[in-house]
Amino acid sequence: MKKMLRLSVLLLPVFLFSCVSTKKYKASQAQYGELQTKYTQLQGNLSGCNDAKNDLARQKSDLENDNANLKGKIGDLNKQIDFLKENNTTVLKQLQDLSVISSQQAESIKKSLDNIGAKDIYIQNLQESLARKDSLNMALVMNLKGAIGNLDDKDINIKIDKDVVYIDISDKLLFKSGKYEVTDKAKLVLGKVAQVLKNQPDIEFMVEGHTDNVPFHNGVLLDNWDLSVKRATSVVRILQKQYGLDPAKMAAAGRSEYVPVASNDTAEGRAANRRTRIVILPQLDQFFKLLEPKKM
Fold this sequence. Notes:
Blueprint: H1 2-97, H2 103-148, E1 156-161, E2 164-170, H3 171-174, H4 184-198, E3 204-210, H5 224-241, E4 250-254, H6 267-273, E5 275-281, H7 284-291
Helix pairs in contact: 1-2, 2-4
């Protein structure tokens, strides 16, 4: 009996140590699992940021190439203009001497040729204005992507096309099927977009609703036209009432099924077509000011 008691006393520390070690091991395993999950999430975020960075770099490279081509064309025009200026006086004098044209006609031609120089300055100013606009658009896209963060490209896509900035948001993110009430998750995304737009008070934009070609009818809503318009106005109301954007700078439009970005013959294509698009409108008034004659 005493031997059994001694043996139990000797084995008790070993048993307790084993229990403590097992608990520590399991706790360490759980902590390691959490760290591994966070590491995987960070890797995903980093990959998304790198993809966005590469996309912006490609767009920047395209803009720089276009800018270089324009500068090359302007340089060629300058050379032609200089050549004409050097030779026009001599040619006009020769024509006058031969009595081919009158002095008044020669003076008129000279003025016309002199105007080429003024038009060249105008072209340079216009090219510089377009370059500034491209830079502003690029900065706007970078700010939007930075504010929104790492969202799936299938849910939201920001791009520049023909000098216009587009923000495409899938209806899967914004609305439930056949509904036009904006989801709580989508309101957070719209808030981030609104913050960037609010920092650019001169920007005007249009919210467009788009659908697929599947016929729709639901009580008050008669068809896809109604659905696309209601979805656009729902987004506009949130931007105005919840995030304080100036309603005078916004417009809402329904495009129904008639401006698809993919074929409606597949489920994937129909999903891509069901979207809401925010179009940053070009500042046409500023552009037309460039066309006004400069006061000397």
